[in-house]
Amino acid sequence: MYDLIGQVVFFVLPILIFFVISDYQKKKNTLKGSKIRGPPVLPIVGNGLLFFGKSPPEILKTAENLMQTYGKLARVWIGNTLNVMLCDPKYVEVLLSSNTLIDKSKEYTFLRNWLGDGLLLTTGKKWQSRRKIITPTFHFKILEQFVEVFDKQGNTFVNVLKKMKPEEGVDIYPLVTLYALDVICDSAMGTTANAQLNSNSEYVQAVKDITNVLHLRMFDFLLRPEPFFKLSRSATREKKAIKVLHDFTDRVIVARRNDLMQQNGKHDENRNGHVVDDGLGIKKKMAFLDVLLQATVDGKPLNNMDIREEVDTFMFEGHDTTTSGISFLLYNIALHSDVQRRVVEEIRDVFGTDTRIPTISDFNNLQYLDLVIKETMRLYPSVPIIGRQSEKEVTINDITIPAGAGIAIGTYFMGRDPDLFTDPEIFNPERFAVERSGDTQNLFGYVPFSAGPRNCIGQKFAILEMKSIAVKVLKNFELSVQEDYKPILMAEIILRPENGVHLKFKARQL
Questions:
Q1: pLDDT digits (tens, 9 = 90+) for 272-290
Q2: What's the half-sphere exposure (Cβ side, CA atoms, 13 Å) at 218?
Q3: What mean pLDDT value characterizes the chain?
Q4: Spatial distance between the Cα atoms of 406 and 47, rounded to a whole number of angstroms
Q5: What is the maximum span of the chain, computed from C-alpha positions, in angstroms?
Q6: Which listed residue, of 13, 315, 337, 365, carries a Cα 20 to 30 Å from 41's Cα?
Q7: Which residues contact 339 (CB under 8 A, 6 or more apart)?
Q8: CA dihedral for 68, 327, 373, 193, sign (positive or negative)
Q9: Of 508, 447, 449, whose CA–CA distance to 480 is shortest?
Q10: Nearest one of 379, 352, 347 to 469, comparing CA atoms
């Protein structure tokens, strides 16, 4: 028995040693002589131990320390995968402006079971055709329809707050999540999720479960490989949640398609109204889903699977990112009393005592609030790191990135870079004023919505939603930050506060 073990060790050990040495040499030599520096690597794990066992806030801090130590071009090896971080605008500009470097990083594949080949994850010709179809959904006239949705759900948000004794302090992050979910469900599918009034619904719980699994998988190295993930409890949770989400979306698509077929060729004198279907609460006037249902690719209509991919993508991108943006916006307004005073004065000047539903023109007149949103997105970009994948060897200016490497653009780190922004830790909305453009000369140093051909298609929608809820809240409340609260940031796919956003609300009447 011992002889057999000895023989196995004798033959296997040299192979293992050779593999370890080869792996180490590969990692060490891959970027030898390059401007891209990084911490010393280990065989097999690379730099994985830097992040192993750390909480999400600690991971963000570790990444920040890497940038400070190794500069605006840095690299880390996570196991066998090379990741290059770019925080220099001259490299970011080339990357984001490229029409070929548009593949998302490998982490995004964790979303594929839910989103399929929707706009976020697809690439090539399919991405181009889908982008062309969806772009008209965010036309000015269609966005105007969404303002009514913002207003209606904003009223519900305020009423929920009033019932919670907000003067004693409230963690608004989960409340904003439900508000954003109601908005996006109403806008994308024309259905009523009633998330704010029924946070225990099966659909709302499924959204919570799927996002929780995705975030967990991002940083648990045992769950990242697909074979290991499929054996985990998280995979069972994901499967159950996806079934609920897909079944709901499928029912809405089928009902709306049948509704359109029945209306085909008929004159509807009330088509400018918002007639509601008795079954699923589907409006006859529903921009996003209507565009998809009536679209064609190479003369053929999209099938239900194609449409579901895009609707689910819209649901994911449209509620998680705006939750982050809205929560940090209200936090900054609450934290800076002078900023809050100016925003309230501007709201009073634009709206007076008018109680009508606002228009896009009204929101466009809130120019100072626009600066406050931009400054919020500088310090707290909803997507803190934009990921790309280099399928082939890539040369960007004077650096070469090997095939298969992940490329990350650190929007969070650039927003806090003193070389790009004067006194970056100070909240100063005026830095984005036209007459003070010193901090914004290089546009690619500030890309909270990405840029170039793969920029965020829904950024106008998001900004309108942020303005709408800010106006609604400030018309009703005076905001302040709960004592001893400071956000503990963590960067998953979305920048979020691990400890919520704790604010106080005092009744106000404009």
A1: 334 444 444 444 455 578 8
A2: 21
A3: 84
A4: 14
A5: 91
A6: 13
A7: 332, 333, 372, 427, 429
A8: positive
A9: 508
A10: 347
Characterize the bridge pairing of strands 502-507 and 477-481: antiparallel
d(CA 80, CA 221): 12
The rounded distance, in Å, linking the Cα atoms of 96 and 91 is 9
Tokens read off for 353: 């005592």
Is 417 buried (19+), middle (13-18) or exposed (0-12) by CB count in 10 A?
middle
Lowest mean pLDDT among 114-123, 424-433, 440-449: 440-449
CA nearest 316: which of 162, 154, 121, 124?
A: 121
CA distance 369 to 344: 9
* Helix, coil or strand: residue 254: helix
Min mean pLDDT across 186-190, 193-197, 277-281, 403-407 is at: 277-281
Q: What is the pLDDT of residue 284?
A: 47
Strand extents, DSSP E, 343-488: 386-389, 394-396, 399-401, 406-409, 477-481
SS (HEC) of 99-163? CCCCCECHHHHHHHHHHCCCCCCCCHHHHHHHHHHHHHHHCHHHHHHHHHHHHHHHHHHHHHHHC
pTM: 0.88
User: What are the pLDDT digits (tens) for 446-475?
Assistant: 999 999 988 998 899 999 999 999 999 999
The residue length of the chain stands at 510
Average pLDDT over residues 346-374: 92
Indicate left, alpha or beta for 4 from its phi (over 0: left) and psi (-120 to 50: alpha): alpha
What residues contact 344, with CB distance under 8 A and at least 6 apart? 474, 510
Tell me what pLDDT residue 48 has.
81
Distance separating alpha carbons of residues 84 and 275, to the nearest angstrom: 51
Q: At which residue do the structure tokens 């000015």 appear? A: 140
Tell me the three state secondary structure of residue 85. strand
d(CA 141, CA 152): 19
Report how far residue 330's alpha carbon sits from residue 476's, in angstroms, rounded to the nearest whole number: 13
Q: Which residues pair with 505 in a beta bridge?
A: 479
Q: Quick one: which of 380, 398, 391, 402 has its CA closest to 84? A: 402
Strand partners, 389: 406
